[in-house]
Amino acid sequence: MKHLDLFELDKKIEIMDVGAAAINEAPIYSNLIDNKIGNLNAFEGDERQIEKLKLKYKDNIKLFTEFLFDGSDQDLHLAAPESGMTSLFKPNEKVLNFFNSFSHFGKISETKKIKTSKLNDIEKLPLIDFAKLDIQGSELTVLKNGNFKLAKCLAIQVEVSYVCLYENQPTFGEIDLWMRESGYIPHRFTDIKRWSITPTIFNNNPRVPGNQLLESDIIYIKDPFKAELLQDEQLKKLILLSHYCFKSYDLSVFFILELEKRKILEKDIFKNYIANIKKFP
Questions:
Q1: To the nearest whole number, what is the mean pLDDT of the chain?
Q2: Alpha-carbon Rg for the chain in angstroms
């Protein structure tokens, strides 16, 4: 497989999306799937979302229906499928009432007991190169129980909360500490969600935000200051992730230069990349 007119990639990038329901925007890995650079391993335990995923990705998906957590029995709190607020954590009514509309979004229609699985125990799942987790509070537990499957993971996109909508939900600070201890550094936010505080509504629209931070998706990357510990193939995958997913062309150049230093790429090939960035798909 030839990519960016720079190098050959031996194997496709293994992508994992936990909480893969297609509710809002297209995922940042879409270009990898469209360009046949990546394999999508998607987890979605909510059966109401399964057909939408199959319709969207057709044969370009390996779908897992396990609820990932720590392998224990848990209560699943079912909210309306379009709300995206179904969770293993119970909504915190006091916090929901603080924000406009969230008492509606977080309304639970049913609670049922389910068996969860550890990420490490999913035998048919390959080692992951890029992971995305958006599972309403369960992200940190899944990460902690997935160290083997994520042993080679190069970047992780995770939803973090500044004000927790669920009881006992880990905060941004807790997730950030774990990510740093696991060898990652923050790279970029894909979005920062703010929301208005009840009862104030701007422009007669409760979705027009005030200044209160709510949550974000943040991308962590393997520590670039230890790039010498990464294999050549891992650096190639990081170049493609940086280019196609993060739109971080300067980060791509950083890893291209590391491959030049190893004589895997010809000297000054990074100049060709910079000159042709807009021409690459």
A1: 93
A2: 20
Q: Is residue 98 part of a domain?
A: yes
- As a dihedral over the C-alpha atoms of residue 207, residue 210, residue 215, residue 219, rounded to 10 degrees, the angle is 100
Residue 248 lies in a domain: no
176's tokens: 């950030």
Give me the domain span that covers residue 129.
Answer: 12-228
Mean pLDDT (whole number) for 32-45: 91
Question: Does residue 67 carry a pLDDT above 70?
Answer: yes
Report yes or no on 87 lying in a domain.
yes
pLDDT of 29 over the 80 cut: yes
The residue-averaged pLDDT of 32-44 equals 92
Select from 20, 27, 83, 25 the least CA-distant residue to 52: 20
- Predicted model pTM: 0.94
Q: Report the C-alpha gap between 139 and 242 in whole angstroms.
A: 22
**Residue 161 domain flag:** yes
How many folded domains does the chain comprise?
1
Q: How crowded is residue 15: how many other Cβ atoms within 10 Å of its Cβ?
A: 24
